[in-house]
Structures are given as structure tokens and as C-alpha cells.
Amino acid sequence: MDPNKPPYLPRPPGVPDVPVARGRGLHADESLLGRARGLGVSADEPSVGRARGLAVVLEEPWVGRARGLARIADEPSVGRARGLARIADEPSVGRARGLARIADEPSVGRARGLARIADEPSVGRARGLAVVLEEPWVGRARGLARIADEPSVGRARGLARIADEPSVGRARGLAVVLEEPWVGRARGLARIADEPSVGRALGLAQIADEPSVGRARGLAVALEEPWVALAEPVAGTGRGLASTALDALLFPYVRGSPGLGRYKPLSVAQGMEEEEGGRIGRARGLLHTSQEPVAGKGRSTALFLKESEPLGKSEHVDTSEVIPCLQEEEPPKVQADDPGPGSFLLSMFRGMGIEQGRPWGRGAATLGRGAVGEHKDVQSVVPPVVSAASEAGDAHYYAGGFAGRGLSGVGKAVGFPAGRGSGAPLIPKEIPVTPAVRPPKAEPKMEAGGKPLQKVGTMGHPVSIASNYVPIRCRNEAVFQYHVVFTPNVESVSMRFGMMKDHRSTTGDIMAFDGSILYLPKRLEEVVHLKAERKTDNREIDIKIQMTKILPPHSDLCIPFYNVVLRRVMKILGLNLIGRNHYDPRSAVVLSKHRLQVWPGYSTAIKHTDGGLYLAVDISHKVLRNDSVLDVMNEIYQQSRESFKDECTKELIGSIVITRYNNRTYRIDDIEWDKSPKHSFTMADGSETTFVDYYRKNYGITVKELDQPLLVHRPKERSKPGGKVITGEILILPELSFMTGIPEKMKKDFRAMKDLTMHINVSVEQHTHSLKQLLHNISTSQEAVKELSRWGLEISSDILVTQGRTLPMETICLQSATFVTSPTVDWSREVVRDSSISCIPLDRWVVFYPRRAADQAEELVSTFGKVAGPMGLRLARPVCVELRDDRTETYVKTIQSQLSSEPNVQLVVCIVTGNRDDLYSAIKKLCCVQSPCPSQVINVRTISQPQKLRSVAQKILLQMNCKLGGELWTVHVPLKHLMVIGVDVHHDTSKKTQSVMGFVASLNSLMTKWYSRVTFQMPNEEIINGFRVCLLAALQKYYEVNHSFPEKIVIYRDGVSDGQLKTVELYEIPQILKCFETFPNYEPKLVFIVVQKRINTTLYAFGGNRFGTPPPGTVLDHTVTNGEWVDFFLMAHSIRQGCGFPTHYISIYNTANLTPDHLQRLTFKMCHLYWNWPGTIRVPAPCKYAHKLAYLSAQFLHSEPAIQLCDKLYFL
């Protein structure tokens, strides 16, 4: 017997096919199923209606959760539509509330209207009309569309009439079609001659030759086609009992009503006498099938057979006894509760002794969602026996597993019917009932009872971890919120502030006031009335202060006030606020050789975490240049006088400058070449003055250069408490502005960067010493302590020490070698000593080099041949092309000519001189966009040291193999059918307002095949728009490779701040879930994790009263984590110098039910798979790949790469 199919159960001899009736019904030659109140007749085909749960399938299973009906000829229909879906050859997948009819292709959407397509799918959410000929239509139109030769789709309330094509609509009027089917929801009449009628009409629907599928409240009669139950299981959403002719059924059928209650025989129409087998009428759950099972959403139970196969194992139930057989005896008669039609029995649950207060789930011993899935073992249990509430004695049911939306798919292996009955079963005793098991849901924010989220893992070794978080104790019981009303109204916010300050004797010295809401650390009376005088007209103003809220001291609304208090404390300590951080110019380090200054300082923030209130304080350094902007402009003028203005614009626009006279930073947005310090401007009091006079009077500064242009800073629009929007421009003098940050030239100077990092990357001991020094300064400053005590705050003098874990080390897998990573997580030696997983033979490749680099090029090619063998690479001799010079045009023309003459070139290698971004950009544009071909650019300086050439050549070969599609190494990921996606965003340098999204997705279970895409978007455009396109393409590619779709998808999304988490959860994730509806019967489990690199959290290993660097794999998932999400801090990389800065991971969506241990281990594994570095990195490899791709496209390509390269890591 095939284990994937249910056992065939023949009908016992002498037992007729008797359906179960609930109301009135007609039965001539065929069984009638329906709940129609009108009349519907079908001549040659069965009629299927929605008698609250009817589903009919001929050859294929029907799986869904639709509230409507779906009838299929050859293919399954999968959906959740509330309307109707009828399909000829292809499946219909959707969630539409309307109707969808398709000829050759699937219709996918969520439209509330109707969508009909000829050749291509329609995807949308339109409430209006959508018509598509050959391409998909996506929209949300509310208008109407009428077409002569094409279908009309809409929701018109008028009339829609088409001659040659079908009319699809929702008109409240009439719709007539001559030759094509009519699909609608009209409340009028619809009559069709030769084609089926599908609708929800309250009127009449009459069909000649085709089946009627709908939701009509009329009657439907089938004349010639049989429609009875044979021996297959039935599982659906009916409220009745699904009855089949079952093998080994030990109680006989009773002519009339062998099923469940509320049955009352009614007279039938003339000429339609009852057949032998009983009556079929208004049952609320008759589910029959001919050849295939129907699996749905049963909330009821199922008859279990004596001779059926035993169930397997399941994680939800545990059966230890044999289920008692049905007794061969007459079914007992049941007394009606009270006379009257339809009250012969109570509902099924009440008939079983179960009240509505004890709801059943969507399935017990969940057996999957599909009727075609593989049989999963389900353990059996001794379920509780539930007595029936009827005079017939105890009638019990055995639910041998619900064929519904459960965890483990069973499909055809279900050997029993499952319904949703409303009556009591007339069957003998001792059939137990299993308790329901609810299906998995998305992880809630809080567990039942208000307990914290389960976010703490257990795997790994415990380790003592210190952090840069300082506990804060709040002595105040609460913070009090008041609403302030001024009568008569005072429009000026500044005047309101003045009036409140005049009453400090009442409110106290410390308060937070925005013009209408007042926060105080002290409690006032419930209502306080104060008097003030408006100075403009000497009118008396009544001020009413009324208490509205009492906030706990740890409330998120209190955090902004605490941070304001902390800012005052830092000012008391003599620190200057620059940007958002505080710096000490008195301790500045001057690097005269490089004309730089380094100001030490702190970044501080008070946060509310899982452990309470903490001060997060980190060490920060501000790099200032001794060169003013005017000095930089003079230097540019000496180098390029002809293009002076263009070069200045290129160098300065976007830079951050600081004005030393007030220690404020500004971003340069433009340069006013037509203005100078001699120009005048209007001050706040209305007087006019020149820039020269302004700086002399206010700051005592004499401006030396009178002809310099002015720098323009355009601050972001911001609103004052009164609603006034502040806009305008700020003009700055280049002579008084100083550049910040590290110059680009210095970033390429190794020695200069080494000198600078000595002062910036401090050791763990220096880091913790600076933190403790700040805490000491606060505790010993009486003024600082007094300022904190006003709000009841007290900052501890020690940093936080808690318990963390180190995750187990991973095993790296090569082609024929595996090894556990070392404590330093570095396998650079092993990866060049053994063969990679797969190596692409390099037979046709070209090396381009300038004449002066000929020797280095020849030596590099020779070294390639020596080191390729042990690595498993096979290299042919390349074509070497010597260039007459190193101009950009020479490279581009020569490469283009070579690619045109030899179109089968696998790889282009270019050796360049110097760090020239223009040359690099030109080569990458040519090889990534115009003539797609993987390319490798090598700086001649990199290969000029003979002692390092071998090591450099090995690394270059690994990178070249990646770009050709080779696979280097992997780790074991136990999750099967998994896709991991990385997303990152970068800003385009050529178009400041444009952003680039990099998208990289895995294509196989080894995580060695990757699919990459790039999308460009404008500032106001949501990232999800481009993400949707990339995700659908990645799923299609995954299907091509694996012949199936991934069951679990994990998305690592970089570039999301804390303030954007809710937006991602409420907007982006629903859009992603909607993408899955594109594919038939596809609902993967989704995990969405936000990756945050730019955080101020620092971790230290703590032992023996000393602080050190934590080992790779250190994870902290409590105390300092966010109370609203499942999050954790992971430091996957090895720290060679400085402190350990972990990465923050926030799981904002998880339907795969991955535990915190699963999330942490999977993330740690992904940090091993970045093939550009034989070690772990700070973020998961898909995120790093997406960053590299977005960076390449934004910095150099400025356009989307060619689609031919999407399955290769060409951007490494």
C-alpha cells in the first residue's frame, strides 16, 4: 500500500450512499449539496454551493481557507478569497474579496474588485478595474475601464455590457454576456446560455451545460453526474459531519437520517421524489469527494475506523492506548430539546458536552495544510472522554488528527473525514476526543500575563561580561504630567514660558514645558489656578494647571527629560557639546605632522532596557584639522586654477565643518560665490550689519580675507512647540570654519593612519579608565549631583558587570577537509592549503597592464601558476595585453576591443598604477554594465613586494574564483529549505538624493550560491518597492536551482534605526508577506532581523578584577537589551586592537518559531561565510555582500549592473 495515500475503504455490502441532511433538499439522480434559498439548476455538471463549508474536487485536492468556493478541473486552487475563484488550467492564488477568473495564467492579488487576464498574471490591490493583455497590471484604481475587445474588470454600480469578451464586475445592476462566461456579484439577475455562471447573486442563476459555482442562496440541482462519497477522507470547514461509506463500519445506516441533527424531512417539489438512500437538504457541512481528499479548516472531529492504519508520531500528541471500536448496534434515538423545525439536535460541540467557552483550535495533532503532502508520523494519545448531552447516552468522537492548517503536513495520508459539525453524532460510546492544538503564530511582544519576552538563550559557555552601561537609580516615585490652559488664549509660546517662569514658587525650579504640556518631578494639586499679566496689553491671564498623568520614573516619556538633565551635567563638567557628543578641548592631542587635532570626549544617553534605567556612555574622539576651509580653497586654487570652482564644489560640498568661536558643526550644502564678508544681512532685531562688523562686535574676531566667498548651510526644517516651522539658510565664513574628519588622502596614507589610530583606538584598559574617570567627576561635583537630584536621579560609580555566553566554535567545510576554527577564528592557512568546495576552470582570461608594470604583471601570472594547484584551481595561460599608457581612455578602448573580438572571455584582470577612482569606475562600468564580464582590478603597489607576492596571489585567486561562480567554504546549517537574505542601503555619490539598495539571497542549502540585485530609489520612495521586485526574482531563481521554494526565509536588514522599527514591522513586513501570494499554495515561514552596527554598546571580558577583550562568539541577550523586542548583542569577530564593539540584532518578526538559541547560532554561522576574509566578520555574510554591492553601484557604477552577473559575486 502506498504510504502517501489513505487506505481505500470500500463500502460495506448493503449500505447505500446516504448523504446527511439538515433541511429541505431535492434528490433525483444526483446528490444535491447546497444551502440555496433560491433555485439553481445544472444539467450535466455537479452544482457546488457554499452550504457553510462545501468543497468539491474531481481529480485534484482543494486546499484553502477561502470563505467562498473554489472549483477546479485539473489543478488545485489555493487561496483565501472571500469571493469565488474558478480556474481552467492553472491554479488561482489570492486573497481577493472579489472574483478572479483566469484562462491560462494564475491570477494573484488582493483586489477587492475583479481581475481577469488573458495571458499574464494580474497582481494588485485595486478597488477598481484592471485589464491586462500581455503584461501584469498593478494598481489600486477606483475608476472604471471599458474595453471592446478585452475583458472589463471593475466594480461598477451601473451596467457593464460587452459583446465578444466576458464582463467581470460587481454591478448592482444587470450584466449580460453573449459568448463568454459572466462572473460577478450582482444583486440582480444573471442568465447565461453556454458558459458557467459564477456569482453571489441573491436572485436566480440558471445554467445549461456548465457547472454552477457560487454562493447563491438558492437551490442547486444536479441531474446526471454522480456525486457521492466512496472511500476517501473528507476534511473541510463544514459545520456538519462528513460521512463516507467506510470499511469496517460497525453500525448500520438508518434510512432517513444516519448523521447529525437538526434534520427535519420536508416535502419535495412535484416530480422530484426521494431516492433510496435518504434525503439530502440543508446540511451545514456535507463534504463528499469522489477520488481525492479535501483538506481544509475543520474545527470538528472525525470518525475513526476500526481497520484503518495507525497514526504515526507527532510532537503535539502522545497516544498510548488503542482506540475503542465502534459498537455494532442500533443508533439510539434522540429526543428533541423542544419542538420546532431545525431543533432536533444541538450543535456538535454542545452535543459532545463542550460549551463555547472552551473553544477548539484550528486542528489537534496538526496534520498540515495540504491534501497532497507527505505523511508525517503522528503519535497517538489517550484523549479525554467527553459525554454527549443527549438522551441517547454518551456519544463520543475521536479526532484522529485534524487535516487543517497545522504544523506538519499530512495531506492524503489522512484516513478519516473531518468536518465542522453543528449536531451531535448518533454513534455508539467510547470514542475519545483529543484536545485541540492551536497553529503556530507570530511571536507576540509580551507573553501571557504580561511576562517579558522569551529572549534569553542557553547554548554556549557562561562568561562574565562588563559593559559600558551604568545603572541609574531614580528616587522619585513618579513624574507628574499636567495640562496647562491659558484663558484668554496666549498665542506666543515664548510669552507662555515667561508666564510659567514667574510662578516658580509654585512649580519649582526644575520643569519641562512645551507650551501646553508640563512635566514636574513634584506633585501639585489636582487643579491649580494662577494669575499672570500679558505685558503687551496688560490683560490678566488665568493659567489653569490640571494633572493628567502620573508617569512611573522608568517611563519612556521621562527619558527625554533625563537626557536634558544629563546634558546640563556634562556642561557643568566643562565639556563642549559638538553635534550630539561632548568633548574636552582642554585635553586635545595635536598631531603637528599631519596638521590634525584629536579632541577626546563622550557620547552619552540614558536608556530604558530590560534591566531598568541605564546610562550608556562611550568614548568618542573628534578629529579636527588645523586647516580652515579657506586654506583648502587656496590649495585647490594652486593646483587647478582653470576649474577652481568645480573642484571646490566637489571637495567641499557635503563636508562637515566646525566654527571654533561657538564650537558648532555645520554641513556645507552650497557655496555663494557672489557674496563676501562685506555684504550685509538683517539681524533678529531688524537692524542690518555686515559680516565683518558682526564678528568684530560679537566675538572680537577680525576678518582678514574680505573677498572670500561664503559657505551655505541649509538646516532641516524643524518645528517649534508652537507649531512654527523654522527654515532658512546659514552663511558661514570659510576663514572661520575648520574641516573635520580624516582627509581622503590621509585615509590612503598607511603611516598617517597608524599614527592617528594610536590615539583613537584606545585599549580596553584605557577605555574603562576613561569611563570610570567620568563617573568619578560626576560623583565628586556637588553641582552635578544637585542637578541630578532635582529629578531624583543617582548615577552609580561602577559600570555594569553581568553574565554572558560564548557560542560554540563552528566547523569549516572545504571540498575534502573540515576543521574547527581556532580561538582567533582565522583559517587563512587552511583555505589555501586545501581545495575549495568548487573551482571554476579558468581557460579564457585576459590581463591588461601598462608598459611600466610589465615586469610585475609577468611575475604575478607566474606566481598564479605556482599557487593554483594546491588550491584546486586550474589556470590556462592568459592573454597578456600591454597598454601604451595608463590613461582611462586607453584601458576602456582596449578592453572593449578585446571583449568584442573574443566574446567568451571569462575574466578581465587589470593592473593599474595609483589610486585612481576615475579609472576604477570606468573599468567597472564597462565590465559590470556595458559588457558584462567578471573583472579584477589590481594595484601595482600591491604586487610590488616579492616577499608578499605569494600570499597576495593566493588571496587574489580566491577572489577570482568567487567572481567566476566558485564556492570556497561553508559551515553546517541544519535548517533545510532555507533562504537567507541580506539587505543594505547606500547613498549614490553622483546624485545626492538617490539611494541604492543591495540585495543578496542564498540559493542552496550549503549557502554557497548567491543571487544579487540592485535597485535605485528616491528619498521619498519606500525601500519595499524595490525589495519586492528583488524578492520575487530571488524566489524564482531559487526554484530554478532547487525545483522547490524555500520553506523558511531569514532576512537580515541593515540600515534601520530604532525609530524605524515600528515602520518596518507595520509596513514592510506585510508587503513582503503579500509577495508570497504570487506563487500558488506558498506560505513560507519568515524571520525578519534588523542589523545595527553603529551603536554605542561596548562589551568587555571581566575576570580577576581586570577588563579584557571578549572572545569571538560572545553574546549578551539580557539586561541591556530592548524590552519591546527579541534582541541580542553578538560579537562574532576577533578583536586585535581596541575594544569589542558588538552588533545589535533585533528580531521583529518570527513565524518560523526559531528560538533565541537558533537565531543566535544561525547569525554566528552566517558571520563565517564572507569569502573575502578567511575569518569571521562583524555582520552576517549576506549583509556584507549587500553592502559591497550597494557601495560599488553607488560609488562607481551609478546604474544597475547587468542581469547576466546576478548569480556571481562579481562585486567582491
TrEMBL record:
Residues 907-1198 form the Piwi domain. GO terms for molecular function: endonuclease activity; hydrolase activity; piRNA binding. Pfam families: ArgoL1, PAZ, Piwi, Piwi_N. One of its GO terms (cellular component) is P granule. Its cofactor is Mg(2+). SMART domains: PAZ, Piwi. The keyword Ribonucleoprotein does not apply. SUPFAM superfamilies: PAZ domain, Ribonuclease H-like. Residues 1-16 have a biased composition (Pro residues). Its main location: cytoplasm. The keyword Hydrolase applies. CDD domains: PAZ_piwi_like, Piwi_piwi-like_Euk. PROSITE patterns: PAZ, PIWI. Keywords: Cytoplasm, Developmental protein, Differentiation, Endonuclease, Hydrolase, Meiosis, Methylation, Nuclease, RNA-binding, RNA-mediated gene silencing, Translation regulation. Residues 628-741 form the PAZ domain. It is found in: Cytoplasm. One of its GO terms (biological process) is regulation of translation. Signal peptide: none annotated. Residues 1-23, 427-454 are annotated as: Disordered. Belongs to the argonaute family. Piwi subfamily. PANTHER family: EUKARYOTIC TRANSLATION INITIATION FACTOR 2C (PTHR22891). Component of the PET complex. This is Piwi-like protein 2.
